[in-house]
Design brief:
Length: 355
């Protein structure tokens, strides 16, 4: 979290207040340069201070770094200062949101929050209320509950509400007006996706976990490579949660437990060995990827025939993954490429480059 302003946003919190509007709301999504995150711009307070919030469906608490934080990371613009907002106030400890079990707890007459991320980062601060300004229509949401980070929820049933988004694979700069609105975060009526021009929309149920589980899930039944269903027991995809794979826009890559990952890896290895006689690299110079191939003295990346990978979801929905959503090339010119699916010991998770 270097010179760009990094804050966090969670989709469930926005849904509770946004879809109550009689019209749809949408806000442009961007992917930051030299950053794996997607973000949306939101105004906080009266008058509004505009900040960039990271779009993360794998978390529950919406929070921003506040001016009183002495141990927080440096940001390029001044952090939100509650003193200059006429609509800001602390969340009272007697509100149900303060006792929801999502890392919130009473502190005197008010309410505090704690968030712990998978990388061990711990976020603490005060739960607060203020006006949020969202979307291109500058729609105002009064009394939005968010965390004011002071040290290094909106909570509701959100499955009945509507939202949709598409995360672009390419990276565009903020001032690139040609591509300025290619990705959108949609709410309410704007979120409805309909078949058009011969394109058929496929659907699969979105599954909600326990009350203390902030993640979204989908039931993945099978994975196929080059038209062949891999020998993976569907129960493997429900490991640790009993529901299905976690959908997390805050994680870049897809993670599968060993019983699911190994057959996928073996099928990819078989494809490149039979097609080109290529063997995987023993050690990659491009991070902690498990399966990589050298491209030195080999065809250009655009001329390589990659394996066809598909995810088969409940309801007969099939997601066919394009090359750039499965493999990542490294180097200029390209010196190697790697499979962007990694093994994990816990939850199966679909990262944002799958979508």
């Amino acid at each position: 979290m270097s010179k760009t302003t990094m804050f966090f946003i969670t989709l469930p919190a926005l849904l509770v207040v946004l879809v109550s509007a009689h019209h749809g709301i949408r806000a442009p999504l961007f992917r930051a340069l030299r950053s794996p995150f997607f973000y949306v711009e939101v105004g906080i307070g009266s008058p509004p201070v505009y900040v960039k919030l990271v779009f993360d469906t794998g978390s529950t608490t919406t929070w921003t770094q506040c001016a009183a934080c002495n141990t927080c990371f440096p940001v390029a613009i001044p952090p939100f200062d509650p003193k200059f907002s006429s609509t800001y106030r602390r969340l009272p400890e007697n509100r149900p949101l303060c006792r929801g079990g999502y890392g919130t707890e009473p502190s005197g007459k008010f309410c505090n929050f704690t968030v712990e991320y998978v990388d061990g980062q711990l976020i603490r601060g005060q739960l607060s209320l203020d006006t949020f300004v969202l979307g291109s229509s500058k729609h105002k949401v009064p009394d939005f509950v968010f965390g004011c980070r002071l040290d290094d929820k909106n909570l509701s049933s959100f499955t009945e509400f509507k939202f949709s988004y598409c995360l672009q694979l390419r990276v565009y700069e903020e001032n690139d007006h040609q591509h300025h609105h290619l990705a959108w975060l949609h709410f309410g009526k704007e979120a409805e996706i309909k078949s058009h021009d011969g394109v058929v929309v496929q659907t699969t149920p979105l599954l909600a976990g326990r009350r203390d589980d902030s993640t979204y899930h989908a039931k993945l039944n099978a994975v196929s490579v080059n038209g062949f269903i891999l020998p993976i027991d569907p129960i493997v995809f429900t490991r640790d949660n009993g529901l299905g794979v976690v959908l997390d826009s805050g994680t870049p890559y897809t993670l599968f437990v060993e019983e699911a990952y190994t057959p996928i890896r073996e099928a990819v290895v078989k494809h490149f060995l039979e097609k080109y006689g290529w063997e995987a690299m023993k050690t990659s110079g491009s991070g902690n990827f498990d399966l990589c191939y050298k491209m030195v003295h080999r065809p250009a990346i655009g001329d390589v025939e990659f394996p066809e990978l598909k995810f088969h979801f409940e309801g007969e929905a099939v997601m066919e993954l394009i090359r750039d959503a499965v493999f990542q090339a490294f180097g200029h010119p390209v010196t190697e490429f790697c499979l962007m699916i990694q093994p994990t010991l816990s939850n199966n998770l679909l990262g944002r480059f799958r979508w």
